[in-house]
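Reopening this ticket.

The earlier resolution said the output was attached, but the attachment link was broken on my side. Pasting everything inline this time so it's all in one place.
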Amino acid sequence: MIRMTETQEVRDPELPGRLLAAERDALVPLLRSRPDADFALPSAGCPGWTVRDVLAHCSAALARVVENRFEAGVFSAESNERDIAERAGWTNARVVDELERGMTEAGRVIAGTDGSLDVIALGEWVHAGDVRDVLGAPGAYAGAGLPDALTLLARITRQREHVPLHADLDDLDEPLRLGAVAAGGPPARYIGDAATLVRLYAGRPLNGASYELAGAREEELNIFG
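Inline output:
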């Protein structure tokens, strides 16, 4: 069982970097061990993109953070497609190299901000789950970074005054409270495992997972939609 050791109210500036580093250590060796054909597989979590497209998007986003390049329209669908297109001539190994550097260096940059970039670390972690899911590797939307990812998810949903939700997780010792403080009634209730909860909040395919959700619709939970 996982025990949440950090408060969900106070920002830990080192958390995004820890999350990125934990996922880097799991994902990069996996990618370096896979044949080029795997990079062309379609991503179920990001329809229309391949594994390589997801990785190129991730490496480009982290490069922008490290280099402080945030022009107008950055991270829009059009901007993301341009970033992917700019890397079309790169080898898969070069994309992975850029991703590894970004996951190593972006944490210190995010730590020095007001927290507005923390969601990028969560998004990168989710995308790494997308890739692991396609490749059939263990730990998709889970793994060593899960406690930090859940802490970050709880804080982001609270800041955005997202739908209030009380989550009783199979793999967590204590209930997780997400979203705004419930007013005028009880919060929505989730019972199930943490990886499925992440899939719901990220709008990812559930793959027949067993869970209970009462008081909210699945689409209401998606923070990336």
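Reporter confirms the inline version is readable. Residues 92-111 form the longest helix (20 residues). Confidence is low (pLDDT under 50) at residues 3-7.
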